[in-house]
Design a protein that fits this description.
The complex is a heterodimer.
Chain A lengths: L1 E4 L3 H5 L2 H13 L3 E3 L22 H12 L4 E4 L2 H16 L1 H11 L4 E2 L6 E2 L10 E4 H9 L1 H6 L8 E5 L9 H4 L9 H8 L2 E4 L12 H4 L1 H17 L4 E4 L2 H9 L1 H7 L8 E3 H8 L31
Parallel strand pairs in A: 1-2, 1-3, 3-6, 7-8, 7-9, 9-10
Antiparallel strand pairs in A: 4-5
Helix pairs in contact in A: 2-14, 4-5, 11-13
Chain B lengths: L16 E6 L11 H8 L5 E7 L5 H14 L3 E6 L2 H14 L7 E5 L1 H5 L5 H21 L6 E3 L4 E5 L3 H12 L3 E6 L13 E2 L4 E2 H14 L3 E5 L1 E9 L2 E8 L14 H5 L3 E3 L8 E3 L1 E2 L11 E2 L14 H5 L12 E7 L1 E4 L3 E3 L16 E3 H8 L20 E8 L15 H15 L4 E6 L9 H10 L4 E4 L2 E7 L2 E8 L4 E7 L1 E6 L1 E3 L3 H8 L26 E3 L9 H20 L3 E3 L16 H5 L5 E4 L4 E4 L9 H5 L12 H12 L2
Parallel strand pairs in B: 1-2, 1-3, 3-4, 6-7, 6-18, 7-10, 18-29, 20-27, 21-22, 21-27, 22-23
Antiparallel strand pairs in B: 5-30, 8-9, 11-12, 12-17, 13-14, 15-16, 19-28, 24-25, 25-26, 31-32
Helix pairs in contact in B: 1-5, 2-3, 5-17, 6-7, 6-14, 10-11, 11-12
The chains are: A alpha/beta, B alpha/beta.
Chain lengths: 310, 663
C-alpha cells in the first residue's frame, strides 16, 4: 500500500540515514512511502511561536497537498516536523478564525506544472482532514507491533538500547496525544518489538540542548552530556533518537562533550528506523550509517532471527 | 399525612386584597417611584387598600400590615419588595398574626427583578406596576392552604466510621436517639487511626481516637455495623428505608477470641492496607491491634479458596470453631429518619504525577505512607527507615502541593492540611534523626488555624527544617541516589538536591468509588466529587436533599478539629430534625386530578424527585406529596391539565400573563 510520507528538509541533507532506513524498513512492511508533490519546509519552530497566522501557511500547504492527492494520513519521522504539522493541523481544526484566515490566504496559491506549464489556482479550503502520525505511532496503531515481530529477519540479541524521546515528541500532551509525557513507553515497546532490550533511564524526555547549540554551546553540551551519561550509566550500548536535531547534539557534538567531561567515554547514537530496517533484513549499506560521527557499525552483527517468533 | 383546606373559600371576585409597596430605603425607591405604584393600583379590581412604606420588613412595617389586614378585613395581601427567598416567611408570619392564611400572601419582586437591574426611573416604575398587577391577579385566585405534616422516625444512619462518623454517631446517641453506624472496612477508625502524631500538639493519633472507638462500640444506642455497606435507600426525610449489605467476614465475631492461631498458619501473604502496603498481612487478619470489633476477618479475595479441600488450615486450628466458609452476603433493612454522610477521602494517586516517580521508586512515598513510617505501631516501629533497604535516610525532601493548586494539569483547589502535616513530618523526622537534613519545597505555607503558625515556626527555627519556596519539576534516580530537581523562586536559581527519601504531600480527593453510593443517596456533589452543601455559608453541614447531613472530608479537605466540629454540627442538625413533633412540608405541591389524568406518565419522567408514580391498577398517576418540591416541571409537561400546582394553577399563570401584557 501507499502512504504519504513527509521527510522534512534535514532528512534530505544532513541526516539521510533516517530517510533511507525509513523507506527501506517500510518496504519490508509492504508500505510504499510517497512524498506529497512539491512539499516545502514545515517552517520548523517558526509557525508555532507567537500568534503569527502566516507562519501556518507552509505546514498547511503540505497537508492540503496530501489531501488533494487523496491521502488521509501523513507520517513523519522527524520530531520537529511532527510537532509542527500536528499542532498546525490541530490549530486549524480547533480555531475557526485561523481556519478562515489561512484558507483565505492559501486559496489563491498558484501551482505551475513543471512539464505542461499548466497553472492551477483556486484551491479548496483545508479544514484539518488529514491525520498527522509519527512513524512510531503508525507502527503501533496501524501496522501493530505483533506484525512487526512476525517480519523480523535478524536478531538484535536483546541489545540494550536507550529510547530518547527528547522534548518535541510528547509535549504538549493535549496536542500531541501520543503517550504520557512524564512516563512514556511507546518507544520502549518499539525497541522490544525489534528485538532490543529497552533501557530505563530518567533522562529520556529531557532536552538535548536543542538550538542552544548555536547560541549557548556550553549549556547544550551539558544537557546532551547528562542525557548520554544517564543512558550509559543505566547500561545502554546505544541511544536511539527520532529527531535530526537531537542526533546532531548527541552524535555530532560528542567530541566536544568528551573534551568537556572527561569521564564520558562515548555512546553510539542511532535512528530508530535503522534498528527497524536492520531487524527487518535491510542491507547494512542502506542504513545510512555513514552520517554518524560516533561509529555505530559494530552494533549491527549479522545474526539470523530464530525460526519461531511469537 | 394531611392537606386540608380550613375554611370555605371566598369567590375570587369578592376578595379584598391589600397592597404594600416597600421603598427598601433607596434600594427600590431610587429607581422605582413607589408612591406612583401604590397610587396606580388603588382602583385596580380587587384591591381594597394600597400603600407604601420605607421598610416593610421592619417591626413598624409589619405592624402596619397586621393592623391593615384586621381593619380592612383583607382576604389576601401583596408585598411589593425584595425576592421572596428573603422575606416571604417574615410576611407569612405577620399575616398569620392577623388571622390570615399564610398562603394568601404574595411577594412581588420589584427589587432584584426591577430596581437593581434598571436605571430608567420611568420605565422601571411602569415595570413595577405590571409586576404588581400580575400578582393581584394571582392573589385573588389563591386558596387557603395548610402545610402537609408527616411523622419522624427518630433513628439516624451514619455512613462512615472515621473520626467524623464516630463523632456524629456519639453526639446523636448522646442526644438520646438511636444510631446505626455503617463502615465498609473490617474496623472503625478511618484514616485517623493510621496517623502517627497530630498537629499542632503532637499527641498520638491512636491514643486520642481509640477511646472514641471504644465508646462507640459500647454505646447502648449505637448499632455498629462494620464490614457492611449501604446498598440502597428509599423514602424521604424523616422516613427513609435503608438496605444494608453485610459482607461475609467468614469469622464469627462473637466466637473469635483473637488467639491468632489462624493467622500463623495462613499461607497467603498480602500487602497490608493499614500500613499502606509497607508491610504484609495474611489473608486472615486483624487490621490493627486495637481494631473494633476485635475479630479476625478472612479476606476472600486473597484466600486460597474458601474450602477445606483447597487449604482449610485456618479452620483446622480454630479451637472456637469461629471460622465458617459458608457465610453468605446478607441484606438487612433498617428504617431511619436522617442520614449523616461521613465517607471520608482518599489521596490523589502518585501515578498521576509520573515525573515524581512515586510509582517507580520505593523511597518516594506519599504522606500517609510516611505517617505509617513515623508511627510507633507502623512497620518500622516508629524508627525512620526507608522502604527500599531499611536504612536511616539522612536527607529527606518533602514536596508540598502534589496535585493541589495546579489548575492546568491537576486539581485547582488547596488540600488545606498538607502545609501543616508536612511541617509535622519534617519536625518528627528531625526529632528521630537529629543529624538528618529535612528540606521542604512549598508554594506558600498556609497555617490558618489555632496555634498552627507557631507550630510551623517551631519547625523552621527549633528543628532547622529548610524551607525552599518553589516547585519540584522532577525526581529521578542517578547513581543509586534520588535526585530532586526544583527551583528556588526567591533566588531564581534551579536546584538539584540529593535525597535518600522523598515524601509527596499528595492532594486530597473524593473517596475512591464514592460516586456510586452518592448516586444512590441522590445527593449532589461539587465538580471534584466532594459532597455539596446546601449553602456554602449558611447551611454548611446539610445537603440540598432534605434529611442528609455532611461531616468530615466527604465534603472537602479538612483537618481533624474541623472534621470533628462539622460532625458535631451535623449531629446537632439531626437533633433539630428529631426534636420536631412532626415534619412540615410546603403545601404548594402538584397533585393529580384523577378525572383528567390519562395515565400517559409524562410527568413521572419529568419529576426530578421521584415523587410521581403511575398506578397500574387505576391507570392514573399518584403523587407522594412529601417528596414533591413544587418545581412545577410536571405541571408544565402535563398535556391534559391534570397536574396543577396549588396556588400556581394554569388559570393563575394565564391571568398573570394577561395582567402583565395588557397596556
Amino acid at each position: 500500500m501507499k502512504l504519504h510520507y513527509y521527510p522534512g528538509c534535514t532528512l534530505k541533507d544532513k541526516t539521510t540515514g533516517l530517510d533511507i532506513s525509513t523507506r527501506e524498513a517500510m518496504k519490508r512492511l509492504d508500505v510504499e512511502l510517497v512524498e506529497p508533490d512539491g512539499w516545502t519546509c514545515c517552517g520548523a519552530e517558526y509557525p508555532l511561536t507567537g500568534e503569527k497566522i502566516a507562519g501556518l501557511a507552509a505546514p498547511i500547504r503540505v497537508l492540503r497537498q496530501v489531501r488533494d492527492e487523496g491521502g488521509d494520513i501523513v507520517v513523519t519521522t522527524c520530531s520537529f516536523c511532527y510537532s509542527v504539522l500536528k499542532r498546525s493541523n490541530k490549530a486549524l481544526r480547533d480555531d475557526p478564525v485561523k481556519r478562515k484566515r489561512i484558507n483565505a490566504f492559501l486559496r489563491d496559491d498558484i501551482q505551475i506544472d513543471p512539464l505542461t506549464k499548466e497553472r492551477t489556482t483556486g484551491f479548496a479550503d483545508y479544514n484539518g482532514e488529514v491525520q498527522v502520525l509519527h512513524l512510531l505511532e503508525y507502527l503501533r496503531d496501524r501496522v501493530g507491533f505483533p506484525r512487526v515481530r512476525e517480519r523480523i529477519k535478524r536478531d538484535l540479541g536483546m541489545l540494550p538500547v536507550a529510547a530518547y524521546y527528547g522534548c518535541r515528541l510528547l509535549r504538549p500532551k493535549e496536542e500531541m496525544g501520543f503517550d504520557e509525557p512524564d512516563s512514556p513507553h511507546l518507544f520502549e515497546e518499539f525497541l522490544e518489538a525489534v528485538g532490543c532490550a529497552a533501557v530505563d533511564y530518567p533522562f529520556k524526555q529531557e532536552c538535548c540542548g536543542s538550538y542552544l547549540a548555536v547560541s549557548m554551546p556550553d549549556a547544550a553540551t551539558e544537557a546532551s552530556y547528562r542525557v548520554l551519561r544517564s543512558a550509559k550509566m543505566n547500561g545502554a550500548r546505544a541511544i536511539t533518537v527520532t529527531c535530526p536535531l537531537c542526533f546532531y547534539n548527541l552524535d555530532h557534538r560528542q567530541e566536544t562533550i568528551k573534551t568537556a567531561y572527561l569521564d564520558f567515554a562515548g555512546l553510539p547514537v542511532l535512528f530508530f528506523t535503522q534498528l527497524l530496517a536492520w531487524a527487518l533484513g535491510v542491507d547494512k549499506a542502506l542504513l545510512g550509517l555513514g552520517d554518524h560521527k560516533v561509529p555505530a557499525d559494530a552494533l549491527f552483527v549479522e545474526r539470523p532471527a530464530p525460526e519461531v517468533r511469537t | 399525612m394531611t392537606a386540608k383546606t380550613p375554611k370555605t373559600p371566598k369567590k375570587p371576585k369578592d376578595k379584598r386584597i391589600g397592597l404594600f409597596v416597600c421603598h427598601c430605603g433607596v434600594n427600590i425607591a431610587s429607581v422605582v417611584d413607589v408612591e406612583k405604584v401604590a397610587e396606580a393600583l388603588k382602583d385596580y379590581p380587587g384591591v381594597s387598600v394600597s400603600t407604601d412604606y420605607v421598610y416593610m420588613c421592619s417591626d413598624p412595617g409589619q405592624q402596619m400590615i397586621i393592623d391593615t389586614i384586621k381593619e380592612k378585613h383583607l382576604d389576601g395581601i401583596i408585598v411589593a419588595a425584595c425576592s421572596p427567598t428573603l422575606h416571604e416567611k417574615t410576611f407569612q408570619e405577620a399575616a398569620k398574626l392577623a388571622g390570615l392564611n399564610p398562603y394568601q400572601i404574595e411577594i412581588a419582586n420589584i427589587r432584584e427583578q426591577d430596581s437593581w437591574v434598571h436605571s430608567d426611573k420611568e420605565k422601571a416604575t411602569k415595570k413595577a406596576i405590571r409586576i404588581v398587577k400580575s400578582h393581584v391577579e394571582k392573589a385573588i385566585q389563591n386558596e387557603d392552604l395548610a402545610p402537609i405534616t408527616v411523622d419522624v422516625n427518630r433513628r439516624a444512619l451514619v455512613i462512615g466510621g472515621g473520626v467524623s462518623g464516630l463523632q456524629a454517631a456519639l453526639d446523636i446517641a448522646d442526644h438520646g436517639y438511636e444510631v446505626i453506624l455503617v463502615e465498609k472496612a473490617p474496623s472503625i477508625g478511618g484514616k485517623m487511626i493510621q496517623l502517627s502524631e497530630t498537629f499542632p500538639t503532637l499527641d498520638c493519633s491512636q491514643c486520642i481516637l481509640t477511646p472514641k472507638m471504644v465508646e462507640v462500640s459500647r454505646h447502648p444506642r449505637i448499632k455498629l455495623l462494620t464490614y457492611h455497606e449501604v446498598d440502597s435507600i428509599s423514602g424521604f426525610v424523616g422516613n427513609f428505608k435503608v438496605k444494608i449489605r453485610k459482607k461475609p467476614r467468614y469469622v464469627d465475631e462473637t466466637l473469635c477470641n483473637l488467639c491468632g492461631e489462624c493467622e500463623k498458619v495462613c499461607p497467603q501473604i498480602v500487602p497490608d492496607e493499614f500500613n499502606m502496603g509497607l508491610s504484609f498481612r495474611k489473608a486472615i487478619y486483624m487490621p490493627f491491634p486495637q481494631a473494633i470489633p476485635g475479630t479476625y476477618t478472612l479476606d476472600a479475595e486473597h484466600c486460597l479458596g474458601l474450602s477445606p479441600v483447597r487449604c482449610g488450615k485456618c479452620k483446622d486450628v480454630c479451637e472456637k470453631k469461629a471460622i465458617d466458609y459458608d457465610m453468605k452476603e446478607t441484606i438487612l433493612e433498617e428504617e431511619v429518619g436522617a442520614v449523616v454522610v461521613a465517607t471520608g477521602y482518599d489521596l490523589y494517586t502518585m501515578q498521576a504525577l509520573g515525573e515524581y516517580g512515586g510509582e517507580k521508586y520505593e523511597d518516594v512515598v506519599n504522606g500517609l505512607e510516611f505517617e505509617r513510617i513515623l508511627s510507633a505501631s507502623g512497620p518500622t516501629g516508629g524508627e525512620v527507615l526507608r522502604p527500599s533497604d531499611g536504612k536511616v535516610p539522612k536527607s529527606v525532601v518533602f514536596v508540598q502541593c502534589c496535585g493541589s493548586r495546579d489548575t492546568e494539569h491537576h486539581l485547582p483547589y488547596c488540600s488545606k492540611i498538607c502545609c501543616m502535616y508536612t511541617a509535622k513530618h519534617a519536625m518528627l523526622y528531625k526529632h528521630r534523626v537529629p543529624d538528618g537534613q529535612a528540606t521542604v519545597f512549598y508554594i506558600d505555607v498556609r497555617t490558618g488555624g489555632k496555634a498552627f503558625d507557631e507550630f510551623y515556626q517551631r519547625a523552621v527555627e527549633e528543628d532547622k527544617v529548610l524551607y525552599v519556596r518553589g516547585k519540584v519539576s522532577k525526581i529521578f534516580k542517578e547513581d543509586g541516589k534520588l535526585i530532586v530537581w526544583g527551583v528556588d523562586t526567591l533566588t531564581g536559581k534551579k536546584l538539584e538536591v540529593e535525597a535518600d527519601m522523598v515524601v509527596l504531600a499528595m492532594a486530597m480527593v473524593k473517596a475512591d468509588g464514592i460516586e456510586d453510593l452518592l448516586r444512590k443517596l441522590k445527593i449532589a456533589t461539587d465538580i471534584h466529587g466532594f459532597v455539596a452543601e446546601a449553602h456554602p455559608k449558611l447551611r454548611p453541614v446539610e445537603s440540598l436533599n432534605a434529611g442528609f447531613f455532611l461531616a468530615g472530608c466527604a465534603h472537602g479537605p479538612k483537618d481533624i478539629p474541623e472534621a470533628v466540629a462539622q460532625a458535631s454540627a451535623a449531629a446537632a442538625k439531626v437533633g433539630d430534625l428529631f426534636a420536631q413533633a412532626e415534619l412540615v412540608h410546603e403545601p404548594t405541591v402538584v397533585p393529580v386530578n384523577d378525572e383528567l389524568c390519562s395515565g400517559c406518565g409524562i410527568c413521572v419522567t419529568m419529576c426530578p424527585y421521584g415523587a410521581r408514580t403511575l398506578d397500574p391498577d387505576k391507570g392514573v398517576v399518584v403523587v407522594n406529596e412529601i417528596l414533591c418540591e413544587g418545581c412545577g416541571a410536571c405541571a408544565a409537561a402535563c398535556p391534559s391539565g391534570a397536574a396543577q400546582q396549588r396556588n400556581q394553577t394554569d388559570g393563575q399563570i394565564f391571568s398573570m400573563l394577561r395582567a402583565m401584557l395588557r397596556e
